[in-house]
Amino acid sequence: MTKKKNTQVTVGFVALGCPKNVVDSERMLAEIVQAGYLLAATPESADVVVINTCGFIEPAKLESLDAIDGAIESKKRGKVKKVIVAGCLAQRLGEPLLDEAQGIDAVVGLEHRDSIVNVIRETLAAETPLVFHGPTPETIADDRVRLRIGPTHSAYLRVSEGCSHRCSFCTIPAIRGPFRSKPAQKVLDEARELVGSGVVELNVIGQDTTMYGRDLRLPGALASLLRQMEQIPDLSWIRLLYAYPTGIDDGLIDTIAGSAKIVRYLDVPIQHASNGVLKAMRRPDSQDDLRRLVEKLRAAMSDIVLRTTVIVGFPGETQGDFDELLEFIRWARFDALGAFTYFPEAGTPAAEMPDQIPDEVKQDRFDRLMLAQQEIAFARNRDRIGGTFACLVDSRDPDPARGGKRRSRPTGRGRFYGQAPDIDSACLIQGCTAEPGRFVNARVTGVQDYDLVVEQL
After folding, report:
1. Which residues, other chains included, contact 2 with Cβ-Cβ below 8 Å and sequence gap of 6+?
2. pTM summary value
3. What is the pLDDT of residues 260-283, one digit of tens each?
4. Could you tell me if 74 and 183 lie in one domain?
5. Are 103 and 166 part of one and the same domain?
């Protein structure tokens, strides 16, 4: 009887935020579908809208509030009955979120993300807004079934939850709790399940993947886990994301360098390169440490692709500090770089620091940094012209015919090992005949902005 009743209710789902949040969304979607609810094609046409929010920095908060406001407007027009807000912003703000966005029917913290079905049932029956909020859960239940919302051939594999670093600008420890490793057997079981469903690329994620196993006092745990993942048949690519500089040791480097499946790609968020700013950020690195790491990685793997993330306009950042960062970026020649202007997040030590940088100065520094990185990225792409790679096809034009004219050559979109899904550039594959999830050998024939133009061989 319950399941029949559930099928009369449609649920719209909005997934926002980082890959860690994607995993949470996929778990909640699976719970919703298994309970017999119907997923709506568009959120505004659903009886219940669930928004899994991000609240890491101010732009993410604004994006979440914009999605919430849209759902509330649909509710006012009578199209939506209930609006449920879950995820990091709900965890961070709790009950006060009801005042910030009036019209929300339930606020759901991370502790209750695995009880989303009960939340929906209680919210539908309630006449006043509900709050499901508490401390972040101590355990990780990622072994639950996930309803994948990305491509069937590529997936995120979370190996840990939370963060125990105390960076002065970051809200993650307060939102997600301390660092907790997921037991290796659970990670491997989930990896095998994903590969069994058609996944050929696993992207390993955590707030700091290099911390894996340290809370359990297991030295070398990440390298050991990666070597066990290599043994999974039909898995082609293993990609390591969110690798903090201080956690990249010789054992991990040797494991990547000696592997046929772990791609030679590392996402290493350095945040800055000025020693003064790094100290104010409460980062354990120095510029010399970062230089040695880049040199060591490239000495071990001349073809490694490095991605990083930096923050400009941190409180007290002088023109000299910024110039140091800019010089370091030009020296390191990262293949890809993401940058943020600093936002003073409530509750963080950096928000209370003196010498906050004016917005116009932050934006000017951001623009200069990104222009320098653009020159580096474009030059690196030009250097790849004439080279050949194995490309993983992500999508293919189903009908390249245009306007009734003679059928043009088929095209596809994919990635070589140096391009992570969702965050990096892509390969535009000319003459692509393979279906998504297949690999093709391709030669780089040109560039199109940040993307590579390649020809299937």
Report:
1. 36
2. 0.91
3. 999 999 999 999 999 999 999 999
4. no
5. no
